[in-house]
Structures are given as C-alpha cells and as structure tokens.
Design goal:
The complex is a heterodimer of chains A (about 575) and B (about 575). Chain A is α/β, with parallel strands linked by helices and about 575 residues long. Chain A is about 65% helix and about 10% strand. In chain A, helix 1 crosses helix 10 and helix 4 runs antiparallel to helix 5. By secondary structure, chain B is of the alpha/beta class. In chain B, a hairpin with a 2-residue loop joins strand 11 and strand 12. The longest helix of chain B is centred in the middle third of the chain and has 53 residues. Classes of the chains: A alpha/beta (about 575), B alpha/beta (about 575).
Chain lengths: ~575, ~575
C-alpha cells in the first residue's frame, strides 16, 4: 500500500491535465490572498509603531504610502479570496465531473466479465464517493500546501532582511507547523482515515440491501436484525469520525501553539536586537505581527492531512478498478464488420473460472444466415454461455466463434452487438420514459418504426392505457410496470434494433401461455429474414418459430434435428 | 419551493433544540477562549510598547513573556474543548436521525419503496444526514461563536479606544444583514443543486446496474454522455450556489478587512497626533482581526446551512410520505400453529391512486392443499400474495385466516408462519449461507443441508468455488436465473415450521426435470400446509387441488383443474394455448 501511493498521485495529476489551468489559477489567487493578509498585518503594525514614535518625537513623516498600502492590501485580500474560492471550486468540480465520466467509460468494457465480482452498490460508492473524496486532494492539500510553502518563503526572506536570527526561529517554527506536524497527524490518522472510506462503502451496501431487500426482510422478520447491523456499522463509523475530528482539533491546536512559541522566540530575539540597536523598534512590531499572520496560512495544513489516507485510498480504489484489463482488446477503430452474418462455433470451450466446470465444452455449431434454431437443454447446460461468447462478453479458452466468417475476438464489439438483438433473461429497463427506453436500442428510429416494434411486441394496448403514453417514466429498473409488461418492452426494444440476428433467451419466461403463444406468433413475423436463435427450456410452441432444435447437455451439442421431428420424438417419450 | 423553507428551517431548529445543553457548554468554552485571547493581546502589546517606546531590555519583560507562554496552551485547550463538545453532540444527534430516516423509508412499505429509486433514497439517507450533521457540528457552534466572541472583544476594545470600538460596532451588524440579503437567493439555488445531486446519484447507480444491457444495445457510450450531461448540470448548479455563497463571504471579507485597515490607519494618525497611547493602539489592532474572524468563518460555512436546509426538506418529504402499512390498534391476535384455511371475501386493493389491482376477489384456499393462482400478467396474482404478506394494506373486503380477520393478527407472528418465494428475490451481500440464514437465523447445518437438497441448491453449491461460503452480490454474481431460483426456494424451505407457503412462480427459470422435482416437494409439503402457488405454466398447476383464474384483478373462474379443463372457460383456453 505504502509503496503504491506515489503512483496514485502522479496518475491523478496526469488525469487532471485538462484542468491544470484552473487549478494553478486557483492556487495563485489563494497565494495572493494569503500574502495580502500577511502584508496587511505586518504593514499595519509597523505603521502604527512608526506613527507613535513620530507623534512622540514630533518628527515629520510620510504617512501616505503606508496608509495607501494598507488599504491596497485590504482590497486585494478580499478580491483575491473571492476569486480563489470561485476558481478553486470551479477547478474541482470540473475535474471531478471529468474523472467520473472517465471512470464510467473505463468500466463499460469491463461489464459483465470483470464486474460480476462487484456489487453495484460497491461500484456506485467508488464512482461517486471515492471520486468526491479525491476533491480533497486539490482543495485541502494541494492548494494549502503550495500557499503555505510560498508564504513561508516570502516571509523568511523579509524576516531575514530585518533580523536573520528571527528568520531562523521562523524557519524552525514553520517547519514544525507545516511539515512535521502534518506528517505526524497523517500517520496518526492513517487507520481511521482509511477505514472510514471502507466503512462508508459498506454502509451504502447494507443500506441498499435494507431498501431493495425490504420485502424479504419484512417477510422473514429480519428488519430489526438488519437495521441493528446497519446501525452498529454506522456507530463504528461515527466513532472513527469523532476520533478523526479530535485529531484534527489537536492538529489545529498544536499549529496554534507553534505559532505562539515562534512569536515568543521572535520576541526574545527581537527585544535583544532592539536593545542592542540592531533592529528598529517598529520593525519588531512588524515581525511579531507578520509571524502571527503567517501562521494563519499554515494552520489548515495539519487538519487537512488527517484525511490524506482516505484520499489516497480512494484514488487507489478508483485506479484499481479502472486498470482492470478488459477481457477483449478492441481492434483498431475503423475495423469493419463482414457483410455476412452467419455464425459458427468452432470447437468452442469456455469456462467462467478455472475451478468451474466447462460451460461450453467443445461446441461445434453452424447457423447459416436466416437460420431459425432453438437451443434447448437443462439449466446449466451452456445455453446462455453460447450467447455470452457470441456477444464477445466472455473469451473462449479454446476454439473460435465466427461471425460472417471472422473470429468475433477481432471484430469491434459494439458494432458486432448492434447486429445481434437480444431479448435476455436479465435485461434492465431504465428510469427513463418509455420512449427513451426504446430509443436506447436505436437512437434515430422514426415514429413509424417505433409503432411497428410496439405493435409486434403486443404493447399497443399497454401504451394506450398509459395516461402519459410514451412519456411515462418507467421507474428504477422498470419498477412501475409489471413483469410481463417489462418483458414486452424489452422485446419491442430489441425489435427496434433492427439487427440481422435475433437472439431470444427465454423470451416467454414470466408470461402466461396465451401471451406466450401470441408473442411467438409476433416474433415469427418479426423474425422473418433474420437469423433467429431461441434459447429456451420450454418446448411448447417451438415449432411456430424455429426449423431446427439443438439439444445441449453439459456444455456440448447432443443432437440437431428438425423441429417437428424433435417435438414428435419428445411427445412419444 | 420557497414555501417549503419555513418548515425545513423549523425542522432543523427542532432538532437543534436537543443540542442546547452541549452548545451552551461549547459556547462557554468559546467565551473563555476569547478572554484568554484578550489577555494575550494585552500582554503582547505591553511587550511591544515597552520595546518600542522605552527600549526596555528583555530582562524586564520576562513576567509578561512567561504569562504569554502559559496562556498559549490554555487558550488552545479551551478551543479544542469547545469543538469537541459540539462535534460529539452533533454526531449523536446525526446517528439518531439516520436511524429515524431509515425507519421512515422502511415505513413506506414494499409498495412505496418500489416506487422510489433506491440510489436516490441512499443519497437522501447518507448524504442528506451528512449535510444536516455538518450544520450541527460546524455551523451551529460557529454561529454561537459569532454571537458571543465579538461582544466579548468589543467590551475590551471600547475602553482602550472608543473610536475603533465604534467602527467595529457599526460594521459588525452590517455583516449578517448582507449575508441574509445574499443568502435568500442562494438558498433557492441550493435546493435545486441538492435535487440534481440526487438525480446524479440515481442515474449512476442505475447505469452501473444496467451496464450489460447498455452494452448489448450498443448504447453505453450514449449513456455515458447522458451522465456527463447530468454531471455538468450538477457542476453548473453547484457553482451557481457557491458563487452566491462566496459573494456573501466577499461582502463579509471586504467589510472585515477594510474595517481593520481603517482602524489601523486611524490609530496611526491619532498616535501621530498624540491622541492615543501605542499600547492601546496595538492592543486594538491585534484584536480587530479576531473580532471579525468568527463572523467570517460563519460566512464560509454559509453553504453548510443552505445544504442542510435543502437536505432537511428532502428528509421531511420522506417523513411526510403517507405510511402504507399502519397497523390497526387491535392487531394482536396470534395465528394458530396448524395450516390455516385462508378465505378471501370481496377483497380489493389499489395502490397510490392507480387503477385497482384487485377488486371483489373471493375464493378459499383450503388447509393442506395447493391453491394455484393463474392468469395473464398483471391480473393481480402477485398482489394477492402481497395482501397475505401484509404488504398491500389497507385492503378492502375481508381476508379470513381460520375465521380471524388478517389485519387483526399480529403481523410479525403471522409472517413467521409464512415461507415465501418472491418473483425476483433479492440477493443480499454475504455468503450463500448468510443469504439462506436471513430467512431462518437459527437454522443449523442439518437444516441448511435439507433445504439445499430439496430445492436443488446442493448441485449449485458443488459448482461454487467456496461452497456455502461463496460470497454473493446483489444480482447473485455468476448464478444463472435457474440457480437464483433455487436459492430463493432453499431460503423458503429453510423455514420448516412455516405452515403457509406463498410461492410466486417457484419453477420459473427451471428446466422441466428441476421443475418436476420442485413440484414434488410442493405436493409433499401441502400435506401439512396451506400452499398458494402463482404459476404461468399450467403444467405446474395440474397437481393443484384448486385453480383460481384471475383477470384484471378479478376472479374469473375457479375449481379443481380437471373440472376447469373440461369446462369451456378461460382456463381451458389457456391450457389449449400451452399444449398447441
């Protein structure tokens, strides 16, 4: 972990390239504001001391310049502070939005093969919370650290000109407050800081279970137990957060203590110098006030570093996820798909993990363009794995899948999948309008095409029954429509895709017999001129749709027979 | 939107009332800290004056120097104490609020929850509470400091130099005034920003859940752009809020800084004219920035308050959502142990202003028998089970459980009698074992094995890398539809003592061999139980004792399956459709 930290930061820095202008601008304005604040106090102190001495001695004095400088510093500080706040936040928000989009795009090619091990709650936590934590990197660390360092350098130079010994005290004090203390705080906070990120992610996961699994928990009387689990985790998180806040308070207090001690040292040295005539009295006042003002710019650093581990951990998690290699390397852009759309499995072997049995164990299967074939078999026989291999979602360990005569591994995945419309067991509807859900498959579809797809999927009556028609929002995961309606929307969406290959993975699951029969009739019409692959374990009505039946068993093709013959054989049994 | 504000503010105030005592303690420590600060300024100005005017040597100033040395840790300790007191109290309040909000969300009931995007709810519960917490832990103590510290410091500045005191006194009230003026516009923008943050959260969680579908459709890249749009809108709205918030900070900053400059310059001239002692001048100059500091810090936390108000609005909305399943007062009758007879008498149910999902449903599910519910999708089969589970309440008509009205039963006791296989079971975070044990926490290894055996889950377990201990994700990673179905079945079977079985398509996603095995299990179980079985496939229904055919929320026909098959009704028609 420790060794992995620097790369995290340097990669983060590299990713922030487009926003560096904003970031640098924000830091510059912050520095300007800090220096103006220091200047204001230092000059004010010097000014009133000089004025007091002049008043006492009756000497003439040019008071216009310092008085003007004081006013100028005051205005500069206010303006720079406003500019700093606007620019730094603009920079962060832009960087975060960019980072979020970047990560999401990195995740796309990982689904489903690489993401199946992660819960979407966990993914969500990374995508949003982790990236939000990264905000801290710039706003609370990068900016204050650069401001502190440059302010210290400026103050040291000014102090060294007036009194070198005081500069040494200042160097020591600022070193303690700006370097040693933040590093110490970082180490002390490391565990809690890291664990808060993990616990917060776990808490979101538990919440997701509590809300999505609420019916089950209710039915089993498990609500109280689950809530108790949730609350104990939340309580643990609260304890850590309290400890962190305390540590931050300690950091702030110690920084203040170093400020006071430095001031006292400067006073001791300054008083001696004034007494010895090495320092003009007003300059002592200036040095004292400069010291106090300088530490105001340093103090936030110690508090900020308490969150350091959380930041690097968040970065680490984001990059770990983003760096997961996709199972397929996409071919160079511009690689085109063959015109033909026949499909061939050539001794295809696939398994999902080395310890699992072969899902496809040497499958040889040719589907000519326009063929209509059903694949039947027990659950776990490998029917759905055929589809996973064809869609280029999972790689074969052996053999090939050919589309139009070319191995799918070398074809552009998105193009390939646009040629294969799928009605699958688990297809998501999105919390968009019905129309937007349909248009996902074909953004440019005309009204006529939509009507046709809807009527083929027997959705017309349903659409007509909706008060808002196509504009009805379906709810998260299509929560506002029934299972059967959802299935038909998915079917309409697939039909709208207008692909030469149509794959139906248990299309009638969840539908009653009559609806299923009507659907087969409709699919029969819709499937004309397309290659049709029907994956099912329900035999009734098969012959309406397909010409041949392929039987799979334990990852292999057992038989391939004309549909009528097969069904006749089944009935005899 | 604005009209909602007073209630959100009122809600926040009501919550904050619980913090009165710790805030008072924190305020007291803050005042003590301010007094220590005054002493520090007084000592420092004394040292500097002695050095500048009297050229005093260090030796004569040791006492003051040492006093400063003692004061420094004292003051910082007081500050830390104030912060800690406030933070701890706020943390405690936040925890109780979080628990309350979760309860509120759960009180929506299964139907109400399904209508809510869960990403959105989680954003409300986690981020909303965090926003309110920040208000309690940071804003309120700072507000107390802003109210307490300036008067304390002012009380010392006035005797030292009345003119500077007057400047401070006149400028101080301007700051909150301007803050209020600017803040009104900002509050509205903040509300919108919060709404957008929720939308963003919901959109992301959904996109991730549906990533495979998006890829299948080749729509992932388009969807990414859609998310970019949402992100961009969030940025724009946030900046809108922040710009206004920062503007109020600018006003503050400007007044504070310019006042310090004016104080410094005026002090300078009066020193020149001999109207003021240097010591008093320095003392005032040191205190002037501290006078404004709490007010400025409060301005910097302004958006904390706005975020909290917006979050409170959302939390309030959750509180105000009508609760679906309010238990009637007399619901305490304990159901019998044995398999009950369940009689529906003209039962109706409609959810949230939608068309009735059930109306005038009457039928009887006999004890020790299988009653099958069939009908087109959307006919109300699942809703009937929901009524029995107490999810769909209040219903109209009567549901008699052994002659006792369902809503008069103790709902927890009643549910404890039920084994339920939902249509799409949720897979919880945890291992296969954890997922099963959720249904029956006390089950032992033997019971687990039995349930796995009878549901066909054992075959799945053999395949899994870590068997019972294999961790599962929310969609049941790596498990096919059929395997998930077996998991749900096993979970229900684990409740061996349950005498009511509610099975919503238990054989969906199963091949015929597996389905037949499950049907045999159901048959055997029915000898001592009341089984209600929702089925699409009529083959699953043949073995039922009674079939109830539903259509559009009504009972169309009912009777033994053979009888119905012979009649020329809907069932016969369905049967023919399936066999053809």
């Amino acid at each position: 972990m420790r060794r992995a930290l620097p790369p995290v930061l340097s990669r983060l820095w590299a990713l922030m390239r487009p926003y560096r202008g904003w970031m640098a601008g924000g830091a510059a304005l912050a520095l300007l504001a800090a220096l103006a604040a220091i200047g204001l106090m230092a000059v004010s102190g010097w000014f009133i001391a000089v004025m007091a001495l002049a008043g006492a001695s009756g000497a003439a004095i040019n008071y216009f310049t310092p008085a003007a400088a004081i006013r100028a510093f005051a205005i500069l500080r206010s303006g720079a502070r406003y500019g700093e706040r606007v620019v730094t936040h603009e920079a962060t928000l832009r960087a975060l939005a960019g980072l979020r989009g970047w990560l999401f795009r990195r995740l796309i090619p990982l689904a489903p093969a690489r993401l199946s091990a992660l819960r979407s709650g966990e993914l969500f936590a990374r995508l949003r919370a982790d990236i939000d934590v990264l905000e801290h990197f710039y706003l609370a660390v990068l900016v204050p650290a650069s401001v502190a360092l440059l302010s210290i350098a400026t103050a040291l130079v000014l102090t060294a000109i007036a009194l070198p010994a005081a500069a040494l005290a200042l160097l020591l004090g600022t070193l303690l407050a700006a370097v040693v203390l933040p590093l110490w705080i970082e180490r002390r906070a490391a565990r809690d800081s890291q664990q808060t990120v993990l616990d917060a992610a776990a808490l979101r996961g538990l919440l997701l279970d509590a809300l999505r699994g609420h019916s089950e928990l209710l039915a089993w009387g498990g609500v109280a137990a689950h809530n108790a689990r949730l609350e104990s985790l939340a309580a643990r998180l609260d304890v850590r957060r309290t400890r962190l806040d305390q540590l931050q308070a300690v950091g702030g207090a110690l920084a203040g203590l170093f400020a006071q001690l430095t001031l006292l040292a400067v006073l001791v040295l300054g008083l001696a110098a004034v007494h010895g005539g090495a320092l003009a009295p007003p300059e002592l006042v200036m040095l004292a006030l400069l010291t106090l003002a300088l530490f105001e710019a340093i103090t936030p650093l110690a508090e900020a570093l308490a969150q350091w581990r959380a930041t690097t951990l968040a970065g680490q998690r984001v990059f770990d996820l983003a760096d997961t290699p996709p199972v397929f390397i996409e071919p160079a852009p511009g690689t085109s798909l063959p015109q033909r759309c026949d499909i061939e499995f050539d001794n295809a072997r696939l398994r999902y993990a080395p310890h699992l049995p072969w899902a496809l164990d040497g499958v040889d299967l040719v589907l000519a363009a326009g063929a209509r074939v059903a694949v039947v078999g027990a659950s776990g026989a490998g029917k759905s794995s055929l589809l996973a291999a064809l869609l280029k979602f999972y790689p074969l360990q052996q053999g090939r899948v050919l589309f139009g005569g070319e191995p799918v591994a070398g074809l552009p995945g998105d193009e390939l999948r646009r040629r294969i419309a799928v009605i699958a067991q688990q297809t998501t509807l999105f919390d968009l309008s019905l129309l937007d859900n349909l248009l996902l498959a074909a953004p440019d579809a005309s009204a006529g095409q939509i009507e046709r797809a809807v009527s083929l999927a027997q959705l017309e009556a349903f659409v007509a029954s909706l008060p808002q028609g196509y504009d009805t929002v379906l709810g998260e995961g299509g929560a506002r429509v029934s299972g059967g309606e959802a299935r038909r929307i998915v079917i309409a969406r697939a039909l709208l895709q207008d692909a030469p290959v149509l794959v139906l993975d248990e299309p009638t699951e969840g539908l009653d017999a009559r609806t299923a029969r009507d659907l087969y009739t409709a699919l029969d019409a819709a499937g004309r001129g397309r290659t049709l692959l029907l994956i099912t374990h329900r035999l009734s009505g098969l012959e309406r749709l397909v010409d041949e039946v392929v039987v799979m068993e334990a990852g292999r093709i057992r038989t391939r027979t004309p549909a009528r013959e097969y069904l006749a054989g089944e009935r005899r049994r | 939107m604005r009209r909602g504000d007073p209630s959100a503010g009122e809600w926040l105030r009501r919550q904050a009332r619980q913090l009165r005592a710790p805030l008072a303690r924190s305020g007291l420590l803050t005042v003590l800290q301010a007094l220590a600060l005054v002493a520090q300024a007084w000592l420092l100005s004394a040292i500097l004056t002695a050095a500048v005017i009297a050229h005093a040597p260090l030796a004569r100033l040791w006492p003051q120097w040492l006093a400063l040395l003692v004061l420094a840790p004292l003051r910082l300790g007081l500050g830390m104490g104030a912060r800690r007191t406030a933070f701890r109290a706020a943390q405690r309040l936040g925890a109780s609020l979080r628990a309350g909000v979760l309860r509120g969300a759960q009180a929506l009931g299964p139907y109400g929850l399904r209508a809510q995007a869960s990403g959105d709810l989680i954003t409300r519960v986690v981020d909303g509470i965090d926003a309110v917490l920040a208000y309690f832990a940071r804003y309120l103590p700072q507000a107390a400091a802003a109210a307490l510290v300036p008067p304390v410091l002012g009380a010392f500045v006035f005797p030292a130099d009345w003119l500077s005191g007057l400047i401070l006194l006149l400028t101080a009230p301007l700051i909150p005034l301007f803050m209020m003026l600017v803040g009104k516009a900002a509050a509205q923008a903040s509300e919108r920003r919060y709404g957008q943050l929720r939308r963003l959260g919901a959109a992301f969680i959904e996109a991730l859940g549906g990533l495979v579908t998006l890829r299948q459709l080749g729509a992932a890249a388009d969807f990414a752009e859609r998310l970019d749009g949402e992100s961009e809108e969030y940025r724009a709205l946030t900046m809108q809020v922040l710009r206004v918030a920062f503007l109020s900070a600018l006003v503050l900053e400007f007044f504070a800084t310019v006042s310090i400059a004016v104080v410094a310059v005026l002090i300078g001239f009066r020193l020149l004219w001999g109207e003021l002692a240097l010591r008093a001048g320095l003392f005032v100059l040191l205190l002037a920035p501290e006078f404004y500091l709490p007010l400025r810090a409060l301005g910097g936390l302004r958006h904390t308050r706005m975020d909290a108000l917006a979050a409170a609005q959302e939390l309030l909305a959750l509180e105000a959502t009508p609760l679906e399943a309010a238990a009637p007062p007399h619901a305490a009758r304990v159901p019998r142990e044995a398999a009950p007879q369940i009689r529906f008498e003209r039962v109706g149910y409609a959810h949230g202003g939608r068309a009735a999902a059930l109306s005038e449903c009457s039928f009887t599910a006999a004890a020790r028998a299988v009653t099958a519910l069939v009908g087109a999708s959307g006919a109300g089969k699942t809703t009937l089970l929901s009524v029995l589970l107490g999810f769909a309440a209040p219903y109209t008509g009567h549901v008699w459980i052994d002659g006792v009205e369902l809503c008069e039963l103790d709902v927890a006791q009643w549910r404890a009698r039920i084994a339920w296989v939902p249509q799409q079971g949720h897979v919880f975070e945890g291992s296969v074992r954890d997922n099963l044990l959720l249904a029956a926490p006390g089950a032992d290894a033997a019971a687990l094995r039995r349930a796995a055996e009878r549901s066909g889950l054992s075959a799945v377990l053999e395949r899994l890398p870590h068997g019972w201990e294999t961790p599962l994700g929310e969609r049941g990673l790596g498990l096919s539809g059929g395997e998930l179905q077996r998991l749900a079945l096993a979970r229900a079977l684990l409740r061996e003592q349950a005498r009511v079985w509610l099975l919503d398509e238990p054989t969906a996603h199963l091949d015929s061999a597996a389905a037949q095995a499950v049907e045999a299990v159901i048959r055997a179980a029915a000898e001592t139980r009341t089984v209600l079985l929702v089925a699409h496939r009529l083959s699953a229904v043949r073995a039922a004792d009674r079939v109830v055919v539903l259509g559009a929320g009504r009972v169309i026909e009912q009777g033994p399956p053979l009888e119905l098959a012979g009649a020329r009704g809907v069932y016969a028609e369905l049967l023919q459709a399936e066999q053809s």
